[in-house]
Fold:
Amino acid sequence: MTRRVAVVGGGSSGLACIKCCLDEGLEPVCYESSDDLGGLWRFKENPESDRASIYHSVIINTSKEMMCFSDFPIPAHFPNYMHNSLIMDYFRMYADNFRLTKHIRFNTRVLQVKQRSDFSHSGQWDVETENKDGKKERHVFDAVMICIGHHCNPNMPLQDFPGIDTFTGKYFHSRDYKTPEEWRNKKAVVIGIGNSGGDIAVELSRVTKQVGKSGDTVVVNNIITDFRLFSQHPTVNDDLPNRILSGTIQVKPNIRRFQGSSVEFDDGSVVEDVDLVVFATGYTFSFPFLSSHVISVSENKTSLYKYVFPPELQRPTLAIIGLVQPLGAIMPISEIQARWATRVFKGCTKLPSVDSMMKDIECKKQKMAQRYVTSSRHTIQVDYISYMDEIAEQVGVRPNILKLLLTDPRLGWNVVFGPCTPYQYRLRGPGKWAGARQAILTQWERVVHPMQTRPCNDPKPRRSLMWPIILSAAAVGLAAYVNRSSLPEFLQDPTILLDKIKASLPAQ
Structure:
């Protein structure tokens, strides 16, 4: 019988999960509480309860070649950094191309996900849902993939701001911010200088009233001022440095107190007549439909093997997809997590022992503590390339660089020295895509395409294989150096080296 998989959430992670289930011959049923797909990236003027929400002007800070799904390149004419409306267009193209929408049950909320009484044997789950008419249903699934993200529950640390109850202006979380027009000629303070805080501060700085000596100024509060370099998730905003340099954004230390319409900072400075305070203070994540003995969340921390699998379940039939904060795009990360999870569900890939998984979890926590300041923001951080490689290793799709350089120097050159685009994880192994090579070789053409204002008839330079050949030889030399402990064996019998090279070549 075909295994049935419940997918909770119809955002980018949910769409990837549906497709990966179909690729592996599983039967997905996706439950989406709203009336449309897209999750975080679907703009709505009025935020819905318990749902991620963005403001009108949001543009993704990762380029299209780095954020796309690995077997579906974003159209060449799309800009390299896309507005949220174009991201939604891309998601709809993806869903239409792979016929994903028919597997989504819109306007259906998941109330409970519970292990069945025979879970230790079957690994099955009871899933209770409720539609928009209030009708409740129970379903049995062989596995569950949770894709609700981590931008649903706004973090409002009001207890850390004395006098906030006396504030006479308006304050709200960044998820409730939509456009700057309402605050034209007003005074604003933005608390937090992450990506949302930086974006909102820049946008408000173009319309807000004068604060201080000159210019239209937004005051940005750092929250944390005594951190070391690289100890926080970086803020990516091209305009922010210019706005600070021009004085239109002032960076302040921590807030000491609110008093009426005034805000006093730790350096003793005071801003009077403040109309708006935006709390860009992040989010907390939780799984209200899951029992705490299945997944426990405390202080925005939970224990998941490689951020995907609860390590102590008797059967590995529950996967959390997209619960990471990457230094890069979430879409290809969620996709490769889903590729791994569906292989585990099928039994094609095995998880290690509980002890091994717990050691891996503890090791990651220690590295996190050493690298980042203690904060609810820094509990699910991952580095894009190293994490993608780590999960790709589990699936069996991590590219074999040496083999590529030996058998296809041009492709190997592009993989080694080009951007680490998601297509390279479709070159081999389960889910191999025939178009991956061409997608890699043409990725720069798609980058340049939207910036071309007129056709160029200049003759194209002749391609030379000289450099790929030189680099391939260098790679072989490097491989020999890395394996230098066995060099005497090669020197005594060169056929051993030839046999090793032949073993890495494609079978005839």
